[in-house]
Write a structure and sequence with these properties.
Largest sheet: 4 strands, antiparallel
Radius of gyration: 14 Å
Shape: globular
Strand order of the largest sheet: 4-5-6-7
Order of helices and strands: HEHEEEEEEH
Structural class: alpha+beta
Helix content: 25-40%
Distance between the termini: 44 Å
């Protein structure tokens, strides 16, 4: 199990897998507002799949609680940040992000 996790971490710390962009499986009906926000940041939104723009990074994140869910920090080329919860049993990802209004306030001095 630990060896499997180490392999997953090694694969995911690269900016993009060899031969293509980072693709995540999502729910079939990604909400319109979420899809529009992700498209503004350069993501390709398709039913059941989200493709991150070239230059995006996906780095393993170790939560402080035990979980079978795998967590990743995602940074898009424009420095917009997401948190991904990947559920291996469902082979699907759930994304979390700050609303743009809060993100703008956070970046102000």
């Amino acid at each position: 199990m630990e060896k499997e996790q180490q392999q997953a971490e090694q694969v995911c710390t690269t900016p993009a897998p060899p031969g293509g962009p980072i693709q995540l499986k999502t729910s079939q009906n990604l909400r319109a507002l979420a899809g529009a926000l992700l498209q503004r940041h350069g993501c390709l939104v398709e039913p059941g799949r989200l493709t991150l723009p070239p230059g995006s990074t996906r780095t393993p994140y170790q939560p402080s609680w035990p979980s079978k869910t795998r967590w990743y920090d995602i940074v898009l080329p424009d420095q917009y940040q997401l948190l991904e919860a990947y559920a291996p049993r469902r082979d699907s990802s759930i994304l979390f992000w700050l609303p743009e209004e809060l993100e703008a306030k956070r970046s102000q001095p």
